[in-house]
Task: structure prediction
Amino acid sequence: MGAVATHAINPWLYSRMPYDPVRDFTPITRVAQVPNVVVLNAETAARLKIGSLPDLVAYAKANPGRLNYGSGGNGSAGHLAGEMFKAQAGLFIVHIPYAGGPAAQLALLSGQVDFNIDNLATAAANIRAGKLKALAVTTATRSSAMPELPTVAEAGADLGLRQFDIHTWFGLFGPARLEPAVTQRLNKAFVDALATPELKARMAALMAEPAPTTPGQFGDFVKAELAKYQAVVKATGAKAD
Result:
């Protein structure tokens, strides 16, 4: 099982990798995706009168450098999502890295940072408790877990964010040069399993959504994700070694 970190982000963060994310694997199917969500500390949102994504962008443009966002560290998914958001919307917002996701979440809840782009499954309980103000999900389509939330692309369509699409994904890979017949059998077995009510219910409880593909579609997706993250990692200068 691979993920956005192993096959799209880490190859650009580390100067030496023990594997090639494309050459050394046979893509079988994408399995699931989990949306990320733009969340503000609820007290901060009320104080700054930020109730929507356009409000956040407008405040950031009117007050360059006054807002900050936290992440689980330089090169983390939250950091890179934040940098994509800043770049596409043309904003100057300060990034504050923490030693892991839990520390960044605690910083947001305590008001040390203004907002995060966090995993929806992680943030959901605090959103529902009113401790965090959710503005938008980062996927291309709305999340079935919180369908009332717009996507960043929807809410920011007139703000330079029409193409914004980022999420945590997981997929199944085989070893390099796996026989096509074996690849197809594995693909069918996993795609069929992902369509069962039992697995759909289990994923829904984790706020994940099944995302099956053909092997070819998954291979193309991984290459596109690699290219996307190469650009943002290069722009930030983030390194993990």
In short: The chain has ten helices and eight strands. The chain has two domains: 2-34+166-234, 37-137+146-155. The first strand starts at residue 2 and ends at 3. The chain has a mean pLDDT of 94.
